[in-house]
Amino acid sequence: MTVLVDAETRVVVQGITGHQGTVHTRQMKAFGTKVVAGVTPGKAGVEVEGVPVFDSVHEAVQAARANAACIFVPAPFAKDALLETVDAGIRLAVVVTEHIPFHDMLVMYHYARSKGARIIGPNCPGIAAPGKAKVGIIPNVVFQPGRVGVISRSGTLTYEIVNGIKEHGLGQSTCIGLGGDPVVGTSFVDALPLFQADPETDLIVMVGEIGGTAEEEAAEYIHAHVTKPVVAYIAGRSAPPGKRMGHAGAIISRGRGTAETKLAALQKAGAQVARFPYEIPDMVAAIVARQARR
Amino acid sequence: MVKLAEWRGKELFRKYGVPLPRGQVARSGAEAEQLVRLGAVPLPCVVKAQVLSGGRGKGGAVRFANTPEEVQVAAEAILGLEFKGEKVKEILLEEKLSIGRELYLSITLDRSLRLPIVIASAQGGVEIESVDDAAIDRVPVDPFPGLVSYERRRISKALGLTGAPAASLDRLLPALWRLFQAEDSELVEINPLAIVGDGLVALDAKVIIEDDAAFRHPEYADIRDDRTPLEEIAREKEIAFVQLDGNIGVIANGAGLTMATLDVLKEFGGNPGVFLDLGGTDDPKKVTEAFLLMAQARPRAVFLNIFGGVTRCDTVATGLVAAMQQVPASERFPLIARIRGNNEKEGIEILRAAGITSIPSLKESAQAVVAAARGPT
After folding, report:
1. ∠ CA(B369), CA(B373), CA(B377), 5° rounding?
2. pLDDT cut 70: percent of chain B above it
3. What's A79's domain CATH number?
4. Which of A10, A120, A253, B244 has the most Cβ atoms closer than 10 angstroms to its Cβ?
5. Is A132 at the interface with chain B, CB within 8 A?
6. Would you call B189 an interface residue with chain A, using a CB distance cutoff of 8 Å?
7. Which of these, A197, A190, A217, A195, lies nearest to A205 by C-alpha position?
8. Closest CB from A100, A139, A180 relative to B309
9. If you ran DSSP here, which 8-state letter would residue B129 be given?
10. Which chain B residue shows the shortest CA-CA distance from A107?
11. How far apart are CA B230 and CA B19, in angstroms?
12. What is the pLDDT of residues B58-108, one digit of tens each?
């Protein structure tokens, strides 16, 4: 196990017979992931992309020994899907579904936590460890195996940055897209210790956004506990206050959660701060070169 | 988010059992006068504009009246107002109560704790932001047991309540909590919550319903947020579209990439004004629609910045070229494209055939957009 997923990860895809479920099952398999089961109630017995479909997660766990879930179930039914996953004994669930009401997510998060299960997302690209496994929708093309850990609140911007790192000839250990919703199952503070402890990660790239205080809390954690180099970028420095920029999280309000407060906190914590996304690969490459000289 | 006008918030308060002054909504002076004359609202009364912005008292949008005639005069004065850009179409008439202390009480989400929190202060009647932190108590509430007795006692203490008003709060809090959960609220706020005699009365109501829960609340489908007409069309087509002052249009995919693009344009002196987030799509028609929407906003230049993941570059290019052919020559504008990622080569080729160059570097493409927007005038 590196960070949450590895070659032993056996994925059940919930909502596998839907368009997104099918497309990304194919992509996850192409990445080398063991997708062992799909679940769509009432569709047991069919196969999607060569993966057997079951009526329930319990059956998928029993018959195919699934130990991680990737949830594409539409928002009105996502809470039920997650609770079923947790009750079936699965301890890692990536929720790709967007527009889940936060009141539902509160129940999902606290229920999962009470059972010792972790949620990544919702409204997130998921997790990928190149050469090992991917649970989610991050495009396969941007990756190559390496030693840079990436934690991000964004989707596409993450792909852009990971791709930039790859174009500098560097690869990634694990990349996690946390999602941009008001309530997330895994925050920066939850993810940072995993990368700090991971023997396959040499440095951490953190991509944040305006809104909320997750980056400020991450800065405190980095200051106290992270010894690996951190490169941080915050999107939305020039976004207008009070306007929703697509992500529910990306609202600046009450003088908190601005790019300035986040950048200052991260800088103070010892992170290297990139002002633009295209600066990140250069900064990463410089750190790698320095580490190599030691 | 769906912000409810005070009277709609108070309808919810009534439904869940939060105590209120007696009141009625009116939409004309004559109707207001009639309501008072019939005794539906006791005199003296308060006439309040039903607008979403705060500061109504100071802005002349709240008036007092002692007779039916005064009610009509006050109602007509307020109904003519434009309050902070919002036309007053409804007023709320309420009995004027003899009030003691004014308190603050709300329930909202604490993202960091991932828990709802009750915010309580004995200093109500003013914006909570202006109250000293030491005078505010924040009580996190776990959704599983819900708002339990000891938490209610703590809130009561924070509000400085004892005796009958404390008992009133102990009945009010569960009602407010049920409303917060069952109505999918982002915020329920009572400011001021007034002590009236032995009890408590909610003098104002602010309720915000979460957008993502709209599927459970068809009753709010008619409520419009403060969107421009183009933003409204975009919403119907499920395109994230934000319109502000500025002359550069940005089409990107994903909130983070959209914001990063904005940051880079600003850095080089650009003034981006319209942001359109394509999100993840594999339908060229949606790209065409998005682009035509952008054209309607009449930008000086447009920057297309796409990183193909779920979305394929060739899909975007196909949709874009189709849209360009539909924009009349007189309304054309310079377009700078940067498409990277999934099926990049195919996308670039489609654009090249239509005479559009894709600049791979974010920095250089952003500079080109800023220059094009300045352009020859």
Report:
1. 145
2. 98
3. 3.40.50.720
4. A120
5. no
6. no
7. A195
8. A139
9. G
10. B143
11. 41
12. 888 999 999 999 999 999 999 989 888 889 999 999 999 999 999 999 999
Question: B129 to chain A: nearest residue by CA?
Answer: A254
DSSP secondary structure string, A153-188?
Answer: S-SHHHHHHHHHHHHTT--EEEEEE---SSS-SS-H
Residue A128 counted as domain residue: no
Closest Cβ opposite residue A101 in set B184, B308, B310: B184
Q: Is some CB atom of chain A closer than 8 A to the CB atom of B340?
A: yes
Q: How far apart are CA A117 and CA A114, in angstroms?
A: 8
Q: Each residue of A124-181: pLDDT tens digit?
A: 999 999 999 999 999 998 899 999 999 999 989 999 999 999 999 999 999 999 998 9
Asked if A276 lies within 8 A of B260 by C-beta distance, the reply is: yes
Which of A91, A120, A149 marks a domain boundary? A120
Give the 3-state secondary structure of B269-321.
Answer: CCCEEEEEECCCCCCHHHHHHHHHHHHHCCCCEEEEEEEECCCCHHHHHHHHH
- Residue A247 catalytic? yes
Task: Name the residue among B211, B259, B342 with its Cβ closest to that of A141.
Answer: B342
* Closest partner CB to A102 (pick from B109, B264, B280): B109
> CB contact, 8 Å: A160 with chain B?
yes
Examine the fold and report which residue of A120, A148, A170 is the final residue of a domain before the chain moves on: A120
Domain range summary for chain B, segments of one domain joined by +: 22-95, 102-220, 229-374
| Nearest-Cα residue of chain A relative to residue B312 | A139
- What pLDDT score does B2 carry? 85
| A58-77 pLDDT per residue, tens | 999 999 999 999 999 999 99
Identify whether A126 is part of a domain: no
| Longest CA span, chain A | 59
State the ipTM, two decimals.
0.90
* Cβ–Cβ gap A157/B257 under 8 Å: yes
Homologous superfamily assigned to B229-374: Succinyl-CoA synthetase domains (3.40.50.261)
- C-alpha distances (whole Å) from B242 to each of A286, B145, B203, B245 are 37, 40, 35, 10
Please tell me which residue in A99, A103, A225, A247 is annotated as part of the active site: A247
Name the CATH superfamily housing domain B102-220. Answer: ATP-grasp fold, B domain (3.30.470.20)
Q: Which of residues 105-144 of B touch A (CB under 8 A)?
A: 109, 111-112, 114-116, 129, 142-144
Using CA atoms, how far apart are residues B205 and A267, in angstroms rounded to an integer?
41
Q: Which residues of B touch A18 (CB under 8 A)?
A: none
Q: Which domain holds residue A240?
A: 138-293
Residue carrying structure tokens 């000891």: B150
Q: How far apart are the first and last CA of chain B?
A: 40
Is domain B22-95 annotated with CATH 3.40.630.190? no
From the candidates B310, B311, B316, B365, which should be mutated to test the interface with A, based on the most A CB atoms within 10 A? B310
Same domain for A197 and A287: yes
Please give the positions of B annotated as active site.
104, 189
User: Would you state the structure tokens that stand for residue B7, as one six-digit string?
Assistant: 């009277």
Same domain, A79 and A185: no
Domains: count for chain A: 2
A280 and A149, same structural domain? Answer: yes
Number of A to B CB contacts under 8 A, please give it: 158
A153 inside 8 A of chain B by CB: yes
C-alpha span between B89 and B87 (Å, rounded): 6
Is residue A268 a contact partner of residue A230, using CB atoms and an 8 Å limit?
Answer: no
Task: Tell me which chain A residues have a C-beta less than 8 angstroms from the C-beta of B244.
Answer: 240, 243
